[in-house]
Give the backbone structure.
Amino acid sequence: MNVNRVKQILSSSADIEVKYNGASVWIDQLNEDGRTATVHLRGPLEERTTVEIGELIEE
């Protein structure tokens, strides 16, 4: 995924499915470096992790 698409997803009110390593995640924010994003798994667990945006896949 590229930085522009991450920004579009973050500003959208639609439920856009994004996967990281095969798991469905929510993008919480694009980080200041412009290369990484903070995400968390969809569901009850809200543990956040930082990932490279190139590893995110829109379904």
In short: The two ends are 11 Å apart (CA to CA). The domain at 3-58 is CATH 2.30.30 (SH3 type barrels.). The chain has a mean pLDDT of 95. The longest helix spans residues 3-11.
